[in-house]
Design a protein that fits this description.
- The protein is an alpha+beta fold.
- The chain has a single domain, classed as 3-Layer(aba) Sandwich (Glutaredoxin).
- Helix content is 51%, strand content 11%.
- The protein is built from 9 helices and 6 strands, in the order βαββααβαααααββα.
- It has helices at residues 24-38, 65-72, 75-92, 108-117, 123-135, 144-153, 158-165, 171-183, 206-227, and strands at 13-19, 45-51, 63-64, 103-104, 191-194, 198-201.
- The strands form 2 sheets. It has a 4-stranded mixed sheet with strand order 2-1-5-6, sandwiched between helices. Strands 3-4 form a two-stranded antiparallel ribbon.
- Strand 5 (191-194) and strand 6 form a beta hairpin.
- The longest helix has 22 residues, at 206-227.
Length: 228
């Protein structure tokens, strides 16, 4: 338990993680959040994954990764960015395999699957699997067959997920969530919202995340005492 917080006051802290499934820093941020929570073993939290798109202009079906990077960064700049991320990934225990990625997908379908996983308690598992599929295995996570298979591996009904992906189910809802994130000032991800009130931008070190989580818990407890 966090020092100074009574059992009665300690309700799960919601941590909304605004993230995109093709954001390498979001993968790093997930690992750092896990490390932060490991240092606070008696702190109850509820993690909710919220959608964001780094590039909403990518069409359904995706585009060549090489063409995308060349257009966005240029070959030399892309190599520099990947070189830095490989080092950060090693520190976080992520064996990035950028050379395996052939497609840059539109991630709206991936976000729909993440949304559908929330009631089952499998969101974090799905997010982890999507990150691994894309950044380590080089899979096309815009492919609906792959998305359905990943959902099935994580305990969802793959046939139902595959059928829903061929509809517009929750498409507007996901787009609205992204718009809400933009309206509150989210311009880059990962972006952590603690207790619905406190924000941490970027893949901060575990120590910084743990400190922010503790402060949010204490602030919530203090507010609860004031309202009694």
């Amino acid at each position: 338990m966090t020092a100074g917080v009574n059992d009665e006051a300690q309700v799960p802290l919601t941590i909304d993680v605004v993230s995109d499934a093709v954001c390498p820093w979001c993968f790093v941020g997930k690992r750092r959040l896990e490390a932060a929570l490991a240092s606070l073993p008696d702190t109850p939290v509820e993690i909710r994954w919220r959608p964001f798109q780094l590039d909403a202009t990518i069409p359904q079906g995706g585009i060549s990764r090489a063409d995308y990077l060349s257009r966005k960064f240029g070959p030399e700049r892309a190599a520099e960015i990947y070189g830095r991320l490989n080092g950060v990934g090693e520190e976080a225990g992520i064996p990035f395999a950028f050379d395996k990625i052939e497609r840059s997908p539109n991630t709206l379908d991936a976000h729909r699957v993440i949304r559908w996983a929330q009631p089952t308690g499998r969101q974090t598992e799905i997010v982890e699997r999507l990150f691994n599929a894309y950044f380590i295995e080089g899979g096309d996570i815009g492919d609906r067959d792959l998305l359905a298979r990943i959902a099935g591996e994580c305990g969802l009904d793959a046939k139902i997920i595959r059928a829903r992906l061929d509809t517009d189910a929750d498409l507007d809802e996901v787009k609205e969530e992204i718009a809400v994130a933009q309206r509150i000032g989210v311009t880059g991800v990962p972006f952590f919202i603690l207790g619905g009130k406190y924000a941490v931008a970027g893949a901060q070190p575990p120590e910084a995340l743990a400190s922010a989580i503790e402060k949010a818990i204490h602030a919530n407890a203090d507010n609860a005492e004031l309202q009694v």
